[in-house]
Amino acid sequence: MNFYNRAIYPSLFDHLGKKQITVLTGMRRTGKTTLVKQLIAESSIAQKYYFDLERMDNRLLFSEPNYETIIYALTQQGANFGEKVLIAIDEIQLVPNLPSVLKYLYDTYDIKFIVTGSSAYYMKNMFSESLAGRKKLFDIYPLSFAELLSFNGVSVPEISLDKTEKFVRAEYERLKGYYETYINYGGFPEVVLAESVGDKKDMIQDIISSYINFDIALLSDIRNPANLYKLIRLLSVRIGTKLDVSKLTSLTGISRPTIENYLDLLEQNYLIRTIPVLSKSPDREITKAKKIYFLDNGIASISGEAGSGALFENAVFNQLHHKGAIAYYQLKSGKEIDFILDQNRCFEVKETADESDLKNAISLAENLDIKKCNVIGRHPVKLFDGYIWGGFIH
């Protein structure tokens, strides 16, 4: 089996040598299973077993009330628990009692577990409480732009944000087509590898359908999945805007408590991310409302109604959130800075930018005592100091 390079893989491989349970969590179809199979293939542990809990026979095995029966069944398959054993289990949320099973086996035998789950809510609450100190969680997101390039056989050097200010025309020409694809179709591995636009769009629709019908339905009593899909479409045309629950309630006809519950589920399960406002003077600034972004641009485009600028801003969000904590800044007058990274660097996002955009950002950043400001652009019509072409942010 051929494996593609993922930025998180070295950390996962390093953790393979530790006793703790290695836990991969993230939205389905972000590549968790492929990463697990790569870890299995490259592990030095001789005895290796893989179980997909979407298979009923595997689910029944790990649902055994007597945990020693699981050990017996595995010895019947040739396992020798007098020596170290590697056991990988996919989609652990499908067996409700599995945390107790893992705890018993972890404490009793020399087993290295690698497990995956599609729900942050489950993994970080019910799952975490019962395995305190026995596991480490790794969040698996859709591909970054650098990973998308790697999947397409395009090599790029690792460069710091400071060095992205240098505009190289040849490099822009080499990467711009890939960057447009990233903006429009996102980073789910199978979407990236699909050759036609039609296939990419079909896969994105299939991913969102399986997300609603399997991942979310498993965790919550959603009586009308169509309502959740309607909400997701409405959110996709509100990228980069402040969440207005009252407005969403009015547009959908769904009660406010239900909308709030849905928003929490969507964020806990990797579809959306909200970012806070950075505030130094509450009397002059908007201090409560959070802005919304999607953790994949393909999903963000499902309504077909999200503006070109909004999708570009969403792509930049996904490029930056891997690099640190993201917030935004806004005065009551409406003037704002799109992104603030780790409270010490400002970014304004404009498809076609000029010096005035940078000047405005610098002026606002003075309120926060932040010195470093850049404008991130999509179309490098005009180049100036402080300008970064979005595709150079790997």
TrEMBL record:
Residues 215-350 form the DUF4143 domain. It comes from the Bacteria. Signal peptide: none annotated. Residues 19-149 form the AAA domain. One of its GO terms (molecular function) is ATP binding. Pfam families: AAA_14, DUF4143. Keywords: ATP-binding, Nucleotide-binding. InterPro entries: AAA_14, DUF4143, P-loop_NTPase. Gene3D superfamilies: P-loop containing nucleotide triphosphate hydrolases. This is ATP-binding protein. It comes from Pedobacter hiemivivus.
